[in-house]
Design goal:
Layout lengths: L1 E5 L1 H9 L3 H9 L4 E6 H11 L2 H4 L4 H12 L2 E4 L15 H9 L4 E3 L3 H4 L3 E2 L2 E4 L1 H8 L1
Parallel strand pairs: 1-2, 1-4, 2-3, 4-6
Antiparallel strand pairs: 5-6
Helix pairs in contact: 1-2, 1-3, 2-8
């Protein structure tokens, strides 16, 4: 089973557009995979989803349906590690620590702080486009 942590920016993009992040979320449904998320990441996702700039693209009903859809495909893990890796944006460390604590194989992100690392302790860090290519 492939374990994937999708950064909040990927999940929001999957919600509001029809690009590679959405294709990835839909593709994950058809393969032996699992989305891994932590409580802080889930809280961030929900807080971003209700912002006015996001709500102008999707209705509350669509956001709720999206949460239900991904909720059935994810596992919430407790963050046990406390790595400090991204000094210029410490909030990105939540993604890294979620992936490590959750035994993820991949982090999928559009954030340059993360994608520039390419790998962390055996976890590959890819864009949605790169992950789609890898899953083909």
């Amino acid at each position: 089973m492939i374990r994937i942590v999708a950064d909040t920016n990927v999940m929001i993009s999957a919600l509001i557009s029809r690009g590679n992040p959405r294709k990835l979320v839909l593709k994950i449904d058809g393969i032996d995979s699992e989305l891994v998320i932590s409580k802080p990441m889930l809280e961030e996702l929900i807080s971003v989803m209700v912002r006015d700039r996001i709500r102008k693209y999707v209705s509350g009903r669509d956001a709720t349906e999206f949460i239900k859809y991904i909720g059935n495909r994810m596992t919430v893990v407790n963050i046990k590690s406390k790595f400090v890796v991204i000094k210029s944006d410490p909030s990105d460390d939540i993604v890294i620590n979620t992936a490590y604590s959750g035994g993820a194989d991949y982090i999928v992100s559009g954030d340059k702080h993360l994608t520039s690392l390419r790998r962390f302790k055996g976890i590959k860090i890819l864009t949605a486009s790169e992950m789609l290519k890898r899953l083909k």
